[in-house]
Amino acid sequence: MLARIVFPITLAGVLLLTLLPARFLPELGTAVTLYDDKLQHAIAFAVLAALGSLGWPEHRTRLIVLLAFTGAAIEVLQGAQLIGRDLDGFDWVADCAGMALGLTIAGTSRRVGKRVGGLP
């Protein structure tokens, strides 16, 4: 299934962007700003949760634990002085809100897919 291939690639991309030292972000055309930081976290974790849920629907609880732990670990690592980012607990809250949205989208997609005979 495509989601099983895209999920780890997306996770690697999210980890790279969130753990890259802040000084490299402008070179990538990415700026970390307060007004959209929470939205970026929520979108990233919504996509991860949707892909993970579609790829491994039988392991939803494990997915939630993995992504919640990943979001918390990102914040702890961002708080390390080495990468020049800031630890912000509200980013983790945004991650969890994004996960809830992604799981809702995946669940709705599965229900609609069953009705039209597409998804398992």
Description:
This is VanZ like family protein. It comes from Mesorhizobium muleiense. Keywords: Membrane, Transmembrane, Transmembrane helix. This protein is an all-alpha fold and 120 residues long. The chain has four helices and no strands. It has helices spanning 2-19, 34-55, 60-78, 89-116. The N and C termini lie close together (11 Å).
Describe the structure concisely:
The protein has 120 residues and is mostly helical. It has helices at residues 2-19, 34-55, 60-78, 89-116. The mean pLDDT is 87.
N-to-C SSE string, H for helix and E for strand = HHHH
Structural class designation: mainly alpha
Describe the largest sheet: none
Q: How many β-strands, per DSSP?
A: 0
**Whole-number count of domains:** 1
Q: Radius of gyration, rounded?
A: 15 Å
Molecular shape: elongated
Any low-confidence stretches, pLDDT <50, length ≥5? none
Measured as a percent range, the helix fraction is over 70%
Keywords: Membrane, Transmembrane, Transmembrane helix
Transmembrane segments: 38-56, 63-83
Protein name: VanZ like family protein
